[in-house]
Amino acid sequence: MNLNGKVAIVTGASRGIGRQVAIQLAQAGAKVVVNYSSSRGKADEVVTAIEQFGGQAAAIQADVSKVSEVEALFSETLERFGRVDILVNNAGIMENNAIADVTEEIFDRHFALNVKGTYFACQQAMKHMERGGTIVNFSTSVSGAMLPTYSVYAATKGAVEQLTRQLAKEFGPKDIVINCIAPGQVATDLFLNGKSPELVDSFRRMNAFGRLGEPEDIANALELLVSDKARWITGQTIRVNGGFN
């Protein structure tokens, strides 16, 4: 895959899947904006890792749950690199709570980051992305499993899948494709946080291969979606989950 001359924004790129995506896009030749909200040190580490193999990257702070900061993220990207060709809406939050324990704050926090952040980043892409661009949003395979305590998180990701479908024809006239990746259980801090070894082991047994996914598994699928070979795929959700559901 050759992404030479292209510029990619990866939200939530300081760790986990976002980190791996940023590195692999840079390895393919893209200049990468490593977006972070609060983990400046981790974001700088990603930039350093990219620069060590000759890639170009910049860490840009923005809390994408705030529209003004999404706008600033795109403005600074354009100032630094002059264009935007790829947007990866990876930033997100996941807290597991039984419905009886969900507060208004928990509900609003999830929708602000997972849904509003994705939506208004797509809005900025409509304004500023080059023709022939690519957007990849992130959902979850958990939404098809009906697992307890995931109600708010799964609801946000259902919304992301629907807006991906709805926006496909709006982006089509600009020759921009928009798709969604729905990972299964991936061994990241976001997934492992607060889970017992027994619970993690039970998740391993839910897919066809008996292991957790790795960030590389998701980044590899994303590479296909941003390549020229996927230009006829748009408005779709791709479940990258090892046969979880």
From TrEMBL:
InterPro entries: KR_dom, NAD(P)-bd_dom_sf, SDR_fam. This is 3-ketoacyl-ACP reductase. Residues 6-184 form the Ketoreductase domain. CDD domains: THN_reductase-like_SDR_c. Belongs to the short-chain dehydrogenases/reductases (SDR) family. Keywords: Oxidoreductase. PANTHER family: NADPH-DEPENDENT ALDEHYDE REDUCTASE-LIKE PROTEIN, CHLOROPLASTIC-RELATED (PTHR48107), RE15974P (PTHR48107:SF7). The keyword Oxidoreductase applies. SUPFAM superfamilies: NAD(P)-binding Rossmann-fold domains. The keyword tRNA-binding does not apply.
